[in-house]
Amino acid sequence: MDIETFVKQSIGQWRSQRTAHHLTFRHSEEVHSTIDIEWVDPSDPAVVKLCELYEVGPTDIISPFRMTWEGESDWDEDEEERQSMAGTTVLLPVPDPSDPRKGRLLRDQGYAENVAAAGLYHFTDDGTFVLLTAYNRAAAEERIWFVNPNLRFRVSMIKTSEGTGVLTASFASETRSQLHTDDSALTNTN
Amino acid sequence: MDIETFVKQSIGQWRSQRTAHHLTFRHSEEVHSTIDIEWVDPSDPAVVKLCELYEVGPTDIISPFRMTWEGESDWDEDEEERQSMAGTTVLLPVPDPSDPRKGRLLRDQGYAENVAAAGLYHFTDDGTFVLLTAYNRAAAEERIWFVNPNLRFRVSMIKTSEGTGVLTASFASETRSQLHTDDSALTNTN
């Protein structure tokens, strides 16, 4: 598995059912959301800006894409929290030139903290995508794998920045609800 | 990772918080349970009986263990269902002589169906334990990995026996609540 194939498999609209386990309180929260993943043109201003921010050349990146999500939680009734359940971010894979199974993933805002972030990704031998992102106050680890072309699982956790304590673990089952019509390779199989 | 190390890491009492996603109905169910995993003596009658049932010799097996669980669901108020949330099973790993990273896992009753079952396991290169079990009417796939010695994640899914449709996906975060005092190697580190 490489990042190009992984992004290609991810393109489309997904209905996500995500449950977060707050480990300390043994409390759980459920979020239903719609996630759109679509190609972004490498010349898109958001891509160019992110390349400049991380001093990455246009030939270093591959398969830039945009992820947009909109969800609702069963838990938080607070208006501000509800608004944060919607967002969009551009993601830029920067594969390691010496090993296509790993690299950096840049994005113009993270989901855990609302700032630009660079994560390190790699693929395991069974095709699981693993992403590690360090923030100021926390670190996130995310594992995503496809069960079949229309179902993917995502397990994430938020750790303290020292990496010792795991605060939150979450599981999302994501089913494809539609393909994006601008991707001819995929729509041909529809 | 091999099965002997994996079982050794699993010995103890775990508090499990498990959420099942019923994919068709987009409904979720939460179960809190206590899971005890303990060594079983290879001469235990349950082990001997299971070896006979599967025509396996005593030198073919390694690290037999017992798993006992007791839980309560937020969903099913039915008395019979509630009772099925408690159970115990003996598990017998039978490693592949030519590859210690895979083998069979025999048990005297499965959790998905109440009959003896043999699953196939293997470890991925990042130490994830993957177990595939075929039942009459369904197939189960389970992935278990340790985040740290006191936290493990378990993702399981039930598929139709043809393997095409995924009916249920579930995620458990399991935190160690106590070590078993009969395991000297582990209690020394406590």
Question: Explain this structure to me?
Answer:
The structure is a homodimer of 190-residue chains. Chain A is mostly beta strands and 190 residues long. Chain A has one domain (3-187): Lipocalin, CATH 2.40.128.20. Chain A contains 4 helices and 10 strands, in the order αββαβαβββββββα. The first copy, chain A, has helices at 3-10, 45-53, 79-83, 184-187, and strands at 12-22, 27-39, 65-73, 87-96, 99-107, 117-123, 129-134, 138-148, 151-160, 166-178. Chain A has a 10-stranded antiparallel beta barrel. The two termini of chain A are 22 Å apart. Mean pLDDT of chain A is 85; it is low at 181-190. Chain A binds chain B through residues 15, 17, 19, 21, 23, 26, 28, 30, 32, 124-126, 128, 130, 147-148, 151, 153, 155, 157, 164, 166, 169, 171, 173, 175, and chain B through 15, 17, 19, 21, 23, 26, 28, 30, 32, 124-126, 128, 130, 147-148, 151, 153, 155, 157, 166, 169, 171, 173, 175.
CATH topology description of chain A: Lipocalin
CATH class of chain A: Mainly Beta
- Shape designation of chain A: globular
State the distance separating the first and last CA atoms of chain A: 22 Å
Task: Return the structural class of chain A.
Answer: mainly beta
Largest sheet of chain A: 10 strands, antiparallel, barrel
Please tally the β strands of chain A and state the result: 10
Query: What order do the helices and strands of chain A follow?
Result: HEEHEHEEEEEEEH
Strand ordering within the main sheet of chain A: 1-2-3-4-5-6-7-8-9-10
Number of helices of chain A: 4
The oligomeric state is homodimer
Mean pLDDT of chain A: 85
Task: Name the chain pair whose interface involves the most residues.
Answer: A-B, 26 and 25 residues
Which segments of chain A are poorly predicted (pLDDT under 50) over 5 or more consecutive residues? 181-190
How much beta of chain A, percentage-wise?
over 45%
* CATH homology superfamily name of chain A: Calycin beta-barrel core domain
- From the alpha carbons, calculate the radius of gyration of chain A and give it in angstroms: 16 Å
CATH architecture of chain A: Beta Barrel
The tally of domains of chain A stands at: 1
Helix content of chain A: 10-25%
